[in-house]
């Protein structure tokens, strides 16, 4: 698969696994990140994948960053909207800032990245837009009114845009990971995490690679008939 791909939040966690898997599949990959320079430098040294720093919450920064990636690697065929943050709090304690930050990154960030790329994908009659939503966008989660709303929004975005992209060879899909062994999940208090693992029928957290393999499939030419879909990968914790 000799395509050009951008993975947002692509230097750590699920995003890093996706970037590596796409490179292994033959893609030219750009890994975007927003803040952690040290992790990005380590990722670049270990993988040889070029990293690009901008915040997906900033539309102009996305347009400029995409321009740089296209100058370096060529037109982008595959966009993986993976960047995401949590600001968990029970609703009565949730601040407007916690709501806003999660919306800006997890929902507006998907618009900010997809919109500047959409015209080129339409012209070239090929595109793959894959957004990493979450089990918590499907079922809701205590202390995540912000995150669950944004991740559910990502699924609605996917279903709407799939209808627009279909005639131009662009597929638009979402993946809903369950609880995956990443820094984000490890930040959940240990007791809470243990109670979550007890609710997962396969009896363990997922691995980032298990999500990356779903992305590689959806990004492939073989997946051209799959659009508007949601792949649920959560160890059986929640059936949609
Ligand atoms: N259901 C019902 N009640 C719950 C609950 C739940 N799932 N979790 C906590 N509670 C209750 C507690 O028992 C406590 O009740 P009491 O006051 O009667 O003791 C109350 O809610 C919470 O009170 P706290 O003062 O402890 O709350 P806090 O302000 O300290 O917040 C928290 C703690 C933020 C809720 C913390 O427990 C937490 O982070 N929970 C995890 C939330 C979670 O699962 N986030 C997912 C992160 S991973 C991710 O998002 C990736 C992905 O896509 C899957």
UniProtKB/TrEMBL annotation:
Its EC number is 1.1.1.36. GO terms for molecular function: acetoacetyl-CoA reductase activity. The keyword Magnesium does not apply. SMART domains: PKS_KR (SM00822). InterPro entries: Acetoacetyl-CoA_reductase (IPR011283), KR_dom (IPR057326), NAD(P)-bd_dom_sf (IPR036291), Sc_DH/Rdtase_CS (IPR020904), SDR (IPR050259), SDR_fam (IPR002347). Keywords: Oxidoreductase. It holds the Pfam family adh_short_C2. PANTHER family: 3-OXOACYL-(ACYL-CARRIER-PROTEIN) REDUCTASE (PTHR42879), 3-OXOACYL-[ACYL-CARRIER-PROTEIN] REDUCTASE FABG (PTHR42879:SF2). Belongs to the short-chain dehydrogenases/reductases (SDR) family. This is Acetoacetyl-CoA reductase. The gene is phbB.
């Amino acid at each position: 698969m000799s395509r050009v791909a951008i993975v947002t939040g692509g230097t750590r966690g699920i995003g890093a696994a996706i970037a590596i898997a796409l490179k292994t599949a033959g893609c030219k990959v750009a890994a975007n990140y927003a803040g952690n320079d040290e992790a990005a430098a380590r990722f670049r040294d270990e993988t040889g994948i070029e990293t690009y720093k901008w915040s997906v919450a900033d539309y102009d920064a996305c347009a400029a960053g995409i321009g740089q990636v296209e100058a370096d690697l060529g037109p982008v065929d595959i966009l993986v909207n993976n960047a995401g943050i949590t600001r968990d709090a029970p609703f009565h304690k949730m601040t407007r800032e916690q709501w806003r930050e999660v919306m800006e990154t997890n929902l507006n960030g998907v618009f900010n990245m997809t919109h500047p790329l959409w015209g080129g994908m339409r012209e070239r009659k090929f595109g793959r837009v894959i957004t990493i939503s979450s089990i918590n966008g499907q079922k809701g989660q205590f202390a995540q009114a912000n995150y669950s709303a944004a991740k559910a929004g990502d699924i609605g975005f996917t279903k709407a845009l799939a209808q627009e992209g279909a005639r131009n060879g662009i597929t638009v899909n979402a993946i809903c990971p369950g609880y995956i062994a990443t820094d984000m999940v490890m930040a959940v208090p240990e007791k809470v995490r243990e109670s979550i693992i007890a609710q997962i029928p396969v009896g363990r957290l997922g691995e980032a690679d298990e999500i990356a393999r779903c992305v590689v499939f959806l990004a492939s030419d073989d997946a051209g008939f799959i659009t508007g879909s949601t792949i649920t990968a959560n160890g059986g914790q929640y059936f949609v």
